[in-house]
């Protein structure tokens, strides 16, 4: 998340007063798999109002209103003279934030239409002339930018270009915003979203879509916002384990890549599904959704996908990489995701390679825990790539300052050798159910030519077997991890955010010693990792699981490139060689045939713009070609 959202989150965390215990420190919610619609709706609105209450209860006469508190007062029809005066003070010098400034003040403009003084409304409007927010360079930036510009241009129609920071008239702004939003919706519903399954940035998509669905005058744009919000929530539901979003992710961060729950996505799971606690401070951004959340009603079919898991399932999705500007023959590479969900654990991956250069997370096994707060319930490996050329492939800033500037933007780990966040062009991954094989062939001269394996502090029974397998247990999940080259154990250093002398903040590394997470450091350019998961209930004992894994046929070599031939615990014969298509039971995997969605719950053909959402007898079809929603109950 950007430095601005990080600051908002920090501000939220500093607020401690509340009438009742907030859900982020309360018991873990246990939602009913089935309940009456009125009961579910009432519980949803209670969670929304809890978010609003928390911000309103923090208002004190001694402190000026924050922007979030202004919004809460306006939503609750308490827009008094104090609110208008505070708006005037904030508009006297708009704070930098670009599109992160735009969409919150769009929300204030609409929530305060009938409550703010004429002077306060005029001050906000004039800021859209004098303040020049940059458009940014990522998918979420453009979504927020154009959704905000669309709504504000509708609010102030027929105004000339000299009243807007763009220099364009209201009609021109509206046309440009509409064109981009429709383009992005077409792209994401036909070949997949680029920032897929983001742990934090889900808010930067869900919030603008809800604003369009709530405030757009154009009925077609209102419908698009509502439908895309359904699409986002369905994708979230199918990729969560007890409400916790796991990998793979196009965008995550150094915290939530290991503490899977600790992300804004958990706020949306809590709000929508009621099956996990929200993160502290309701994720910082949760308030911006909550102010108009009453205008959205989660379809029952999506809720059931999240909370009613009757059996194991495999879901395959097609996404796309971040846009590439240079050093590539393709503009956006296809990302083929595999997601295997069981009661005790989930396994997810994409085929490796570059998706997003900084914050991608390619694969993991995540196990279920009774309370996910503070738990590092995941295992994976990664190549800690740091490359100026790769950065230049995806970004247009001056190359000399690209890598050095990342730390101040809240991405401190990019250029450190022990990082566990990010993707690499030298990593190829294949998953079959709960077996993952990751192969690495790193050329000479590449910075950080080694592999990092993440071993959680919360694992138990960690055993280095003479066979070469490392066995462990997380929750009710047995895990077998096979490094294909030699390794050593290191402490995984954490991060602590501290203020800097020149303003802003800096990052300090923290060594938690033997009580912290461990890093399996393997200093070999040709390398690989195999992970096999299973439920503890499948075996008489942990030793029985170890015996079953050691009995599986396994052959591998690292030259000329890594190659594995093995039988999985599920009886599949897999042959996977770096740079070649994986072969399962004699049949090559054809990624070109990957559908946009394929599984028991989400199905869509590539290029169709039509998503069918299914659970049991319930189905909902979102058709972006006709902008129609069709619900059906089968007998």
Features:
nine-stranded antiparallel beta sheet; 635 residues; 29% helix; single chain; 15 helices; 28 strands; disordered N terminus; 3 domains; alpha+beta; six-stranded antiparallel beta sheet
Sheet with most strands: strand arrangement: 14-17-10-7-6-5-4-3-24
The helix tally amounts to 15
Query: Would you report the number of β strands?
Result: 28
pLDDT averaged residue by residue: 94
Radius of gyration: 25 Å
Uncertain runs with pLDDT below 50, 5 residues or more? 1-18
Q: Decide which structural class fits the backbone.
A: alpha+beta
Terminal CA distance reads: 45 Å
Specify the biggest β-sheet: 9 strands, antiparallel
Strand content: 15-25%
Shape: globular
Helix content: 25-40%
Number of domains: 3
Describe, in plain words, how this protein is organized in 3D:
The protein is an alpha+beta fold and about 625 residues long. The protein folds into three domains: about 5-305; about 315-550, no CATH class; about 600-635, no CATH class. The chain is built from 15 helices and 28 strands. A hairpin with a 6-residue loop joins strand 25 and strand 26 (about 610-615). The longest helix has 21 residues, at about 35-55. It is globular and about 75 Å long. Residues about 1-20 have low confidence and may be disordered.
